[in-house]
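Hi P.,

Sorry for the delay on this. The queue was packed all week, but I finally got your sequence through. Input first:
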Amino acid sequence: MTALTLSTAAAPGLRADAIVIGVGKGGKGPVVAPGADAVDKAYDGRLAGVLETLGASGAEGEITKLPAPAGFKAPLVLAVGLGAEPKDGDAYDAEALRRAAGVAARALTGAKKAAFALPLADAADAGAIAEGALLGAYSFDAYKDNGKDAKGKGPLGEVALLGGKPRDKEYKAAVERALAVTEELNRARDLINTPPNDLDPEAFAAVAQTAAKEHGIKVEVLDEKALEKGGYGGILGVGAGSAAGPRLVKLSYTHAGATKHLAFVGKGITYDSGGISLKPAGHNETMKCDMSGAAAVFAAVVAAARLGLEVNVTGWLALAENMPSGSATRPGDVLRMYSGKTVEVLNTDAEGRLVLADALWAASAEKPDAIVDVATLTGAMVLALGSRTFGVMANDDAFRAAIVDAAEEVGEPSWPMPLPEHLRKGMDSPTADIANMGERMGGGLVAGLFLREFVGEGITWAHLDIAGPAFNEAGPFGYTPKGGTGSAVRTLVRLAELTAAGDLG
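Then the structure:
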């Protein structure tokens, strides 16, 4: 893990492999951002002109490298584009700082230490830069020789935030928060990227048990026998075709002063072949990521515990492997769910909603103030919103709006989606209480309506469909790597913080 420090040192005298500065995109060319004053001074105030000569424009994510001026102990200046220069003297927003820091950290893979001299006006800026740098430095190399990337380089070793105030309580708190959130988010990324032959439901549950013990979180794991005894027909039905049995993991973080209780529910299909409704070639190669929702919930609960938030948070990880075999659930089978309702399975590749349904009903039994489920649930949501935005559905418009606002605050693109009542009729079954499929058009909304059937009466609930942003198959951007992204972790943590502060519900 990349180390992080706050530094009051001046840029010229700091020993590091590089000095990172920000560059904005002005109306007449690149503009040197606040924080880079010492570097600009060393260039006699002509740094912007030098950068422009080298082709820099200040566009978001742009990287320009140049030799450090005489007298600097660092040999390199790395200028990173912040995007459009703020108007009327406004500051760069937190997300621009996060993204720039992430791009810079990734560009400095292999370096031992870098000094970040990005715009830093207050503790919030320090937290944003720290988050971006720590997330951008992430690399999943567990299966690479010597734990290094293809070029033989490890991640950036240390980030020093210049202009930080090591003794200031607000700055220290911002950095400590950034460390806790990013370390758990990166742990979620590790889980998502782990090959399914090494992360079945039992192995995932073991990881959760270890972390729970470390951070004082109560944990309960239901194995096949306990699930059968409890009547968890949805989870058992999905896992029936696999030699690796399903699990339901309950993580409970409690605070003595808490007056509110949040429940987070995560879909944890450790590999999704589609089951008997087998996915075609080209659609199953990345299906190790179908447990991203459970990874996000796990990370959020642990982060809440590490931050000592004054709110009770329960995480439910619905874990199963969806495989075809002689014992697998067939299209046409009827499952009796934990709630007692029966579900006709028309498509075994619509399995996520089945495991979530059992976990949602279990979470409802504790009467939390709100439930939020997170899942890579539907391809329809990817078609609707693309690969970087998750959909938010809820049974309460104000709660849905609060989640969208929280996601925007932390830099996770989301979009409010409806639950049209007319689509519910498409899931009527002549055999069971409900079918697991409905109309094809609006499939992401149909899935949300199905899940709503398994939320206890009177409980505020929201559903986050992260099928698009959970796994990045394209190149890295900002602080987002290729592969598992940890989508929704920061939104869940922010919801817990807002609830603890009395600002949500």
